[in-house]
TrEMBL record:
CDD domains per UniProt: USP-like (cd00293)
Residues annotated as transmembrane: none
Organism: Desulfarculus baarsii (strain ATCC 33931 / DSM 2075 / LMG 7858 / VKM B-1802 / 2st14)
Domain of life: Bacteria
Domain UspA: residue ranges: 1-93
Name of this protein: UspA domain-containing protein
Length: 142
């Protein structure tokens, strides 16, 4: 079975350090990278086409960064409630070797927690978050 890692991003927020970490991990595992951007649709329906256009362009640029490093990459945009869209995406594919949070902001989202943090227990692979290199951290698994 081919190896693959999944990089999940939310609402066009991307952490360069997370992408670097994911590309390096994919190289080490001889894995392909799947990029998933989950975006909640805007309340105004007339803004959705512009949002989709921007997100697809961003995903194309991000995928090309992996390809430049010799890692096959495939990008997908999902519009909807992020947790639900991630679970649907995962249900349609073989298990990943790792899931990397590519948006960079902390998952500890206050009193109620971040949707991905709540989803971590349902994953069949490790979830990695990547901190800024300013603090010397490379990432942590959960």
């Amino acid at each position: 079975m081919p190896r693959a890692i999944l990089v999940v991003m939310e609402n066009e927020i991307v952490c360069a350090q997370a992408l670097d970490f994911a590309a390096e991990l994919a190289q080490r595992l001889a894995a392909e990278a799947k990029l998933l951007m989950v975006v909640e649709p805007p309340p105004a329906a007339n803004r959705q086409p512009e949002l989709e256009r921007r997100a697809v362009q961003a995903l194309d640029r991000l995928a090309s960064r992996f390809v430049e490093r010799g890692v096959a990459a495939e990008a997908t945009l999902r519009l909807g409630q992020p947790r639900r869209e991630l679970l649907r995406f995962l249900a349609q594919r073989p298990p990943f070797q790792a899931l990397i949070w590519g948006s960079g902001h902390e998952l500890a989202g206050g009193r109620h927690g971040h949707w991905l943090e709540k989803t971590a227990g349902l994953l069949e692979c490790p979830l990695w978050t990547v901190a800024s290199r300013d603090d010397g951290s490379e990432g942590r698994g959960s």
